[in-house]
Description:
964 residues, 11-stranded mixed sheet, 8-stranded antiparallel sheet, 32% strand
Amino acid sequence: MWHASWIWGSGEESPRNEWRCFRKSFHYEAAVSSNTTVKLTADSRYVLYVNGVQVGRGPVRSWPFELAYDEYEIGHLLRAGSNTIAVLVLHYGVATFQYLRGRGGLLLQAASTTEDGTERIIAATDSSWTTAVHDGYDARSSRISCQLAFAERYDARSLNDTWTEIAFDDSVWESAVVIGNAGMAPWTSLVPRDIPYLTEEPIYPARVEEMNFVKPAAWNAVFDVRTLLIPESVNHANPTSFVGFMATVVTLSEAATFTIGSVDNGRIPLRVSIDGKWLDAADYYGENPQQFVKAELSAGEHFLLFNLSRGSHGHGYHLGLHADVSFEVRSPLEGKNGAAASSVPFAAIGAFDWAEHIDHQPDSPMRKEQPEHDAMLGVGSAEQLLREFPEWVREVPEELFTRTDVYGESVWHVVEQPQPVPVQLQQAVLASGNSAVVPVHAELDTELVIDFGRELSGYIAFEVDAAEGTIIDGYGFEFMRDGWRQHTYELDNTFRYTCREGRQSYVSVVRRGLRYLAITVRGASRPVKLVEVKLLQSNFPVANVGVFQSSNAMLNEIWRVSRDTTRLCMEDTFVDCPAFEQTYWVGDARNASLINYYAFGDAAIVERCLRLVPGSSFQSPLYGDQVPSGWSSVIPNWTFFWITACLEHYQYTGNEQFARDMWPHVRFTLEHYLEHIDERGLLCKRGWNLLDWANFEQPGDGVVTPQNMFLVKSLRDAAAFASAAGDEAGGSVLLERASMLRSAINAQLWDEDRAAYLDCIHNDGRPSATVSMQTQVIAMLCDIAEGDRAEVLDRYVVEPPAHFVQIGSPFMSFFYYEALAKLGHQDTMTADILHQYGAMINNGATSVWEVYPTSGITHNPKMLTRSHCHAWSAGPAFFLGAEVLGVRGASPGWTKVSIAPKPVGLSWARGSVPLPGSGRIDVSWTLDTAANVMKLRVVAPQRVELSYEQPGGYELEIEEVRIG
């Protein structure tokens, strides 16, 4: 099928953060073709243009050994005669949470198919293509986060942005280098894209929220400390620990107060010594996790030593320096043996030791004794450093140092002067074509805070008229209140655009999630006209098929923001959140799949997610908790939820081929989990044994009770899935193992004295000190208890004892609501939704949060949650449709549907639930409390068999309308 070759440019196979342009001009005869398409893929991401028109972005996240390619119809963009295909390829050069490091490459072929079916190749990647590094993109930009790749820093004065068009002269570009044929490693298999293309819907902001004149700290930079101290760590995204330092020499023109600060330390606490004196912990100040320290320094040179010994997952280490007098920063290596000035004014020391941590493998800790570290603590000058540690001191590579730091300059203002927002400035947020003039201060920068009015996810686009060299910095964040901003710690959610002269526009290549966008204009020699700012909202293409309305306005708003959150977290897979991670967490996606069925009715994205998981078997037969990812990590519960999600997908779609395809993978991982059943008959597995963020005992080694219980449920669900796949015998084996495990749980994990299930048994045999609602809810949900114990659990679920650890996240509430619905307590479920989610709405939420504002999990009382848009929290969009409207599938493919509405204190409710494949069921009901009658109207396709269940205390009057 592929006549094209993989191509790249000369130089490194896998360069760090390289933006590379490719072009090919070709002749086209429109008359000979009835259909012209282009197929392509790239490592890592691409943007495709035909004759200067953007056609698409891709590829979707994939395992490298099953790399997806895209196909576009381009005939309408071609003209008779000369045409040009151009592709911008961004190669990461580092592993992320959605990408495994490969090598740079582009594969593309365009073909015309005549009416008789003959295919003619009109363009295919080979050595006749031209290529050049796009030097407008700064390869030294900082990592966005450990989960993502790199922030954008674009200089519009560089490569002419007409490079995608036919007339562009590429004669000075190099010829592309052919690196292999389709099927070469690491892309050994190419598979067609299995989902539609994502949306790009222009969304304009609501208003300009603030205007401030600001000044950043005098010196800001970001360091990639993890790669600096462990260079080979670019090949994976696993957490690491290390022992190492950085040093610099600061020269002050006169005595002054000198401030050292980190607005985001990347989980490495700011620890610094000045001229050999380590500053005390009490000297540091700042709103957690920001850290600052001041010192009174004399004129002249001072030696600064930073202790980096800690651990890092790959976040940037943001460092700022400030004084009200001029100062210089230089490397301690400068001048050594006649060395010239270094482009990076810091030196690295170490790593003296390091370790990589993989949670499902035996740990490789660093040695306990660290004499080099201890000796380094006494170094007080550059001379002493070079004398005593010459073999350990080295330059910081340029690519691991970003100067300047857009995030730091956006967050740390040494001067901030709030201003009234001029009315004319609001023109910037309107689709009117009228320009807003950004006021310019002679000495300060101008910051505008733009409120989009709600959480969004996609690509920032803007148009300005500015003088050459004007800098436009952008910083996206999610929450602000009463002048306080919740900064995106551990997320460098920024871009920098340096203007050429005149009117110009830019569309971001990097996806980001935000509600607020702080735009700071720096170095403007004349007023800047801001014509427009918008965001191209990009998500999986689904319509709002699901609907819910009721007599409770708060419940309606909770449903709406839950639906909107789910859409925002639907990209090429489900993702946990659009801002911080954009990661497909396997366990989160089980809940998101159910919500999607009820809100949008899409099956393709669910099937894509489920099919990606077994690709992680090369990392662990227990399967990864986020895929495809360079972080090899296992949360057993996440794999168990995946098994349940496979069954639920079959139940929703009735797709027997899916069951047959996936059953071997389900059986494979369960067989490996069962190898970890110990002599007590319990699952005992070292690893990341997570269920909820709450403070109950779920240790990394030992017997974790909810995990054992979910394994029981997974074995049962897998048995049902085996039946759908035609393997009754295989399912019977799993049912037997489920029964054995259930018996072991009841024999060894029930505490008679506390009349509850233990949370765990530690590796040393200690029972858990905590007793949690989490464990009791899961015991009930998974049908672990029986007899008197079951009755006790039922009471706990409905009336949680105050001394139990309480539910700590909306994610855990999903299981709690499942348990309440199972017991028939939909009224308690709805009351909890109104209480917990109502607190979000009352705090201004436009999407649902990662944790409840009452959880106390965050370290800062102003920070009500970390992520303000989290798919695992959107459960109300499922439960209100499934329980209050009462619509549930009763057979695979929903050929039979049960309708059992629950009043839950409402006087009326109405809405729609999508059916798989096509159609929907419309339900509306009202209560006549005087007559104890529920009047129910249902509209459904003729093909669906309906059954009804009347709510307790009411008779049903049914009006059934059939269509089709």
